[in-house]
Amino acid sequence: MEYVSHDGLRIDGRRPTEMRQLRAQIGNVSKADGSAVFEMGNTKVIAAVYGPREVQNKSQQISDHALVRCEYSMANFSTGDRMRKPKGDRRSTEISLVIRQTMEACILTHLMPRSQIDIFVQVLQADGGELEFISRTRSACINAATLALADAGIPMRDIVTSCSAGYLNSTPLLDLNYTEDSAGGPDVTVGILPKLDQVTLLQMDAKLPVDIFENVMQLAIEGCKAIENYIREVLLENTKQLEYRRGL
Amino acid sequence: MQEAELVTPGEVLGRAAELKAGKGAYVAPHNKTIYASLTGLRRIIPPPTDSADQRPTVEVTGHKAHGPVPEPGSVVIARITKVMARTASADIMCVGPKSVRENFTGIIRQQDVRATEIDKVDMHLSFHPGDMVRAVVLSLGDARAYYLSTAKNELGVVSAESSAGAAMVPISWTEMQCPLTGQIEQRKVAKVEVN
Lengths: 248, 195
Prior knowledge:
The structure holds 2 protein chains of 2 kinds.
Chain A: E1 22-26, E2 34-40, E3 43-54, E4 67-74, H1 90-104, E5 115-125, H2 137-151, E6 161-168, E7 171-174, H3 178-182, E8 187-193, E9 198-205, H4 210-245
Parallel strand pairs in A: 4-5
Antiparallel strand pairs in A: 1-2, 2-3, 3-5, 6-7, 6-8, 8-9
Chain B: E1 5-7, E2 12-15, E3 20-21, E4 25-28, E5 33-36, E6 40-45, E7 57-61, E8 75-83, E9 87-95, E10 98-109, E11 132-139, E12 146-149, E13 156-159, E14 169-170, E15 175-177, E16 184-186
Parallel strand pairs in B: 3-7, 10-12
Antiparallel strand pairs in B: 1-6, 2-5, 4-5, 6-7, 8-9, 8-11, 9-10, 11-12, 11-13, 14-15, 15-16
Family (chain A): Belongs to the RNase PH family.
Protein name (chain A): Exosome complex component RRP41 homolog
Keywords (chain A): Cytoplasm, Exosome
């Protein structure tokens, strides 16, 4: 099947280096310390952050830095067929671990010893329906978690942004959608700290020769930088709104 | 006031050679640059004139105000929950003028109830469960509770209910009287300033 036409357009009309539409809102869950809704194309994710607060299980308390916990789940209605086990299965556990490690690398945990930060991420809508191909929710989850942490005022080294890229018809493609992902080609997911230029997450399905892998990874990193600009705009806009309401 | 600029986490605020990192900012050790760690207004605070280090401090004030946390030396208002032979447990409700948003537990030990004759203190004649006391935080204590002290004139029970259920009136630094029944009960009473 042809994923990139001869004049360089993909199935949904995007160019190979074009991302899907990004939309984000902050502060949706008023009871949480921080929350955000992040949409990348048809994938919609909500994240809520509680913390820093007292550790609920005293045996897990760490004396010199904060404990970061993360739970990923998918809403029953997020895919085409109603999901039977939205969390607790292997995939959710793996993604919870991945998000936790990524965010833990950027939170300044040494400033909050003996406390706990909880990050809850739930997928409200997953592009496509098949369980195996929903790896793109990973990027939307990390971006939503970053926004929620920034909204909660938790000190971080930098914001973490994540994006994925693939390789079909000999072309690196940024931000695969469901149809392109189902083609079975390689899918590289990258998470970076953009201003510090450090990679905190790198995962890939399938195989790629190393030189092509470098191009695809570079493309994903540029996607991350574009998301970074958007996230910073959203944060600044939100802060300006808060300033206006406080009369400053 | 200095000009205030909005920043997001990870933005460069300056070099460690020229500025000190305050709240909401941190120094990256590998390149000695100061980055923001919160979203908010960036402010530069001039250094105190008598300090050796004359670098101004840069800090970022965010919007999420977290609740106050008891620090050693802060005056707190607590409600007594349990009175035992040598200690009394209390729930800290306010730190200074602000109420706390999480529960903090404090302990008042027998030797910290008052300043004189500390080994002759009877805890049951000093506090009752339900009393509101003003105390000062001695230290962060152990994992379970802060250590509090009422060993000053202005510290101690500020409000208590008698067994008849009425708010008692203080009559001396060791006694409070119930207005309904006239009964006198013993407490370690705080000397409240009347202006």
